[in-house]
Design a protein that fits this description.
Elements: H1 2-7, E1 11-13, H2 15-18, E2 23-29, H3 41-45, E3 49-53, H4 62-65, E4 71-74, H5 76-81, E5 91-94, E6 110-114, H6 117-128, H7 147-158, E7 159-165, H8 201-211, H9 216-222, E8 224-228, H10 260-283, H11 286-292, H12 300-325, H13 335-365, H14 376-383, H15 387-414, H16 417-423, H17 427-439, H18 445-461, H19 475-496, H20 506-532, H21 537-545, H22 549-571, H23 574-582, H24 584-591, H25 603-620
Parallel strand pairs: 2-3, 2-7, 3-4, 4-5, 5-6
Antiparallel strand pairs: 1-6, 7-8
Helix pairs in contact: 10-25, 12-22, 12-23, 12-24, 13-20, 13-22, 15-19, 15-20, 17-19, 17-23, 18-25, 23-25, 24-25
């Protein structure tokens, strides 16, 4: 508080507001759609002064936001959106981020906020908050603070106490519309927590909650934070802040007010799962199991493949989240460009691996290894014997993968990436059922328990700390995507482990799969080009040049992971792959706060991650016997 008082002194030039006496109590009313869930209008109007922003209306919203207005904090753009006129009877605090002068005609109704408040606030926020906070914003704006920050500091300078309404995160803000009025008032499009336009948005909201004299639980439940005015805070002898606020300490990311009943249920599930794991340990010798390799998932090649796959999953999720944070929650380039490049990369790398393996085998074996009388063409035909039959079996897999890639494009355009990552865990159940049905394999009872616990942990991860479930409009698409992914994965395993594919190496099988996926993409692209026209060479070059370094890293990781999946399926199985894939939640929940911004770190997310981790350990137990 004292640092802000010194670093961002708010001064008003001329006008009636500059000459006004100090207000005893003030209400600062945000433009947030979270206000629609409250009926705080009468309470707001009871204050000595009410501060509002830009073009926010009161007519028609009196029950929610009140009707009284003392100060309108705005600039040129806000005034233009309001029709060029300030509300009658309201004083205007003119704060324009572009430095535009006070609009003509406002006269003494307007007082300009002097001293370049936007620059001073930005410098203060950068001094107070760790650098990784700024990854919460997007590339569309630099470090331009919100006009709400100017209004809050102005109110704290002019008022003895300030009640800020929905200027901080609350239990409804994540699902409420961005504004309570106008173009951004539609639910499910842009939430009140969205920071598309200002990098400092999250840090500002966290700051008001920190400075509030109201208990954190109450701020989160009601959306109202009470702050003392600067004049009420003695700052003599107060040292400047030591260190900066880390992202992991964010009140925005760790919502307050977790329901005790929810924690009780989660704790009971953890206790039961842990108890079942202990029973399995008692029934089976764990050390003997580790050394025996009784299951394919715990054999040396399978364990290595699963470990590499887990590291890739975590790395890819973190890369995607970082790229999304720099690109409005989406890739910097269309997935329609990324996916074909990924498939082409898989084909090229598989070709190189196939040729390298073949050359190494010939150099190692020597000329004597070749059958007598066999020429090069004959050897090649023998090496690819059965490939046509495998290609026929692989065709449905290629079609499923391509269909899922198209569906993913739709889902990624409509679902937040972190929400998509959570809901795709429903592929766990799909994989287990299809694995049994398609491959005629038996899954031991304890592994069904593991699948169930893993699914339970994934479901817990979708809950908010208040027990609410946020259901995205595109949820059905995500579920269908999870189903298609499971079907493709299981049938891919069936082909890889089939008798027809036994003579072929894993690189040969991959070449067949990626050749078919590329062929289907080429066919689809040709059809699109015939209907809507083919892009010019200059357009293709410009599109490739626009791919950001982060997108290239994602492409490379997806290529590597695509090649790893087939090896996982060769040495383990689809259920093991899916359960280990779910273990990424355990790593993500602890690693992500130190790498990216868009992540949760609360009792629910940690508890759900532990459930998934226990499920992985249960699955690793060998069959009883």
């Amino acid at each position: 508080m004292c640092y802000l008082k010194r670093a961002v002194p708010v001064r008003l030039a001329r006008g009636d507001l500059a000459a006004h006496a100090r207000f005893s109590s003030c209400a600062v009313v945000a433009n947030s759609g979270a206000l629609l869930s409250r009926r705080a209008g009468e309470e707001i109007d009871s204050h000595s002064a009410v501060f509002r922003f830009n073009d926010a209306p009161t007519a028609g919203f009196e029950a929610m936001v009140g009707s009284k207005e003392t100060v309108r904090v705005t600039g040129r753009k806000g005034l233009d959106r309001a029709g060029g006129r300030a509300p009658a009877g309201a004083l205007v605090a003119w704060a324009d981020s572009d430095g535009a002068p006070v609009a003509p005609g406002l006269g003494r109704q307007a007082s300009s906020v002097e001293g370049d408040p936007f620059t001073r606030i930005r410098e203060a926020m950068q001094a107070l908050f760790d650098d990784r906070w700024w990854h919460l914003g997007t590339g569309a704006k630099s470090f331009e603070p919100t006009i709400g920050a100017v209004g809050m500091l102005l109110a704290m300078s002019l008022c003895n106490t300030t009640d800020a309404y929905d200027m901080s995160p609350s239990e409804v803000s994540s699902t409420a519309p961005f504004h309570y009025y106008g173009a951004h008032s539609h639910p499910g499009v842009i939430s009140a927590d969205d920071n598309t336009w200002h990098k400092t948005f999250e840090a500002e909201r966290d700051l008001w909650a920190r400075l509030s004299t109201t208990p954190a639980d109450e701020v989160f439940a009601t959306g109202r934070a009470t702050l003392l005015g600067f004049a009420q805070v003695p700052c003599e002898g107060v040292d400047p802040p030591q260190g900066r606020i880390a992202l992991a300490q964010s009140g925005v990311r760790t919502a307050q007010g977790t329901k005790p009943a929810l924690l009780l249920v989660l704790g009971a599930c953890l206790a039961l799962a842990a108890a079942y794991l202990v029973v399995l340990w008692a029934q089976r010798d764990l050390l003997t199991h580790i050394g025996s390799g009784l299951t394919s998932a715990s054999s040396a090649p399978g364990a290595c493949a699963l470990l590499v796959y887990l590291v890739m999953l975590v790395s890819l999720d973190l890369l995607i989240k970082r790229e999304a944070e720099h690109g409005h929650g989406h890739y910097s380039v269309s997935p329609l460009v990324v996916v074909p490049i990924v498939e082409c990369g898989k084909f090229l790398v598989s070709s190189v691996l196939y040729i390298a393996t073949k050359c190494h085998a010939r150099l190692t074996a020597g000329p004597a290894a070749a059958p007598a009388g066999a020429d090069g063409d004959e050897l090649l035909r023998r090496e690819w014997d059965g490939a046509l039959q495998v290609a026929k079996l692989m065709a449905p897999v290629a079609l499923l993968y391509n269909s899922n890639n198209v569906l993913n494009l739709v889902c990624l355009a409509n679902v937040r990436l972190d929400a998509y990552a959570v809901w795709r865990n429903l592929s766990i159940l799909f994989n287990a059922v299809i694995w049994v049905w398609a491959l005629n394999r038996k899954i031991e009872f304890h592994r069904w328990i593991a699948v169930s616990v893993c699914l339970l942990g994934s479901c817990f991860n979708t809950l908010g700390t208040d027990g609410s479930i946020v259901v995205d409009a595109a949820l059905s698409g995500v579920l269908l995507s999870a189903l298609l992914s499971s079907v493709a994965s299981v049938f891919n395993e069936r082909v890889i482990k089939s008798e027809e594919a036994e003579p072929l190496s894993i690189n040969q099988v991959n070449l067949l799969l990626y050749a078919e996926t590329l062929g289907l993409m080429l066919l689809g692209g040709t059809c699109v080009g015939l209907v809507w026209g083919f892009p010019s060479l200059a357009t293709v070059r410009a599109t490739l040049a626009a791919i950001s370094p982060g997108a290239w890293r994602i492409i490379c990781m997806q290529v590597a992971m695509g090649l790893a999946v087939s090896r996982v399926l060769k040495h383990a199985d689809a259920v093991a792959k899916t359960v280990v894939g779910s273990l990424r939640d355990v790593a993500i929940v602890f690693i992500a706060p130190h790498v990216v911004a868009g992540t949760r770190f609360d009792a629910i997310s940690v508890g759900s991650a532990l459930l998934v981790g226990i499920a992985g350990m249960i699955y690793s137990m060998p069959a009883g016997g």
